[in-house]
Specification:
CATH topology: outer membrane lipoprotein receptor (LolB), chain A
Number of helices: 4
Strand content: over 45%
Structural class: mainly beta
Helix content: 10-25%
CATH architecture: Clam
Largest sheet: 11 strands, antiparallel
CATH class: Mainly Beta
Number of domains: 1
Number of strands: 14
């Protein structure tokens, strides 16, 4: 593991503190052009998410119906009642995105899959750098907004469902996350520049509570409009 990966985990509360915890839940207020583009406008506008910190699992509620929630794992996604009865499920859900482009509509299970792996990734950052099979390498520094950020290239194993196998994370000199780049493989490899801010501490762990995601140009600069996704996070609860 690179020194920058260790610095980042220490800056966000420390791996030892993270390993004392098992789940995190939060309220999400989400907007942006992605949701109507995918034919799912409003479904995730105001929801709660719970993410497992030990295995790759996430659940959003309510989902479409007040009495329904999602259940995401890399090889299965489902829509369930709050009591746990399966309404609909799909095995090997990533296969359903073959041939998709950015403007290809999603069905509800595809939305649940995307939202599940995305929030699992975001809420486990930067501690997922310590997971088995994850490789990290520091890149050249990156100047932006009058600052210089350190960059970490992270390569994920195929066992982890996430945006793309290779992603880049940007940190300030103290090791706090500033930006996260990836290509959304299930949307035709669309490049994204994901900015975070308003980092707050919960149970000793520092969590970005504002997210703004834009397109990314070939030279690495963000596409300033439109705002693809925004996520405001509150009511963060670690257990």
């Amino acid at each position: 593991m690179s020194d920058l990966a260790t610095l980042a985990m220490d800056a966000h509360g420390g791996l030892s503190q993270w390993r004392k915890l098992s789940t995190v839940s939060a309220r999400l207020l989400q907007a942006g052009v992605l949701w109507p583009l995918k034919g799912q406008d409003g479904v995730l506008r105001d929801v709660h998410v719970t993410v497992d910190l030990r295995r790759e699992w996430a659940s959003h509620r309510p989902f479409v119906h007040p009495n329904r929630r999602t259940s995401f794992e890399p090889d299965r996604v489902a829509i369930e009642t709050i009591s746990g009865d399966v309404v609909e499920e799909r095995l090997n859900p990533r296969n359903s995105f073959k041939g998709h482009a950015l403007d290809t509509p999603w069905d509800q299970l595809q939305l649940a899959y995307f939202a599940g792996y995305a929030m699992w990734t975001y809420l486990n950052t930067p501690f997922l750098f310590a997971l088995p099979g994850v490789e990290t390498e520091e890149l050249a520094p990156w100047p932006e907004n009058g600052e210089t950020w350190r960059r970490l290239r992270v390569t994920f194993p195929t066992s982890i469902a996430t945006h793309s196998a290779r992603q880049s994370f940007y940190f300030d000199p103290q090791g706090l996350l500033k930006r996260h780049d990836y290509d959304v493989d299930i949307a035709g490899g669309t490049p994204a520049a994901h900015y975070v801010s308003e980092i707050k501490a919960f149970s000793g762990i520092k969590v970005p509570t504002r997210h703004a995601i834009f397109g990314r140009q070939p030279d690495g600069r963000p596409v300033p409009t439109p705002l693809v996704v925004s996520i405001d996070i509150s009511d963060v609860d670690f257990k």
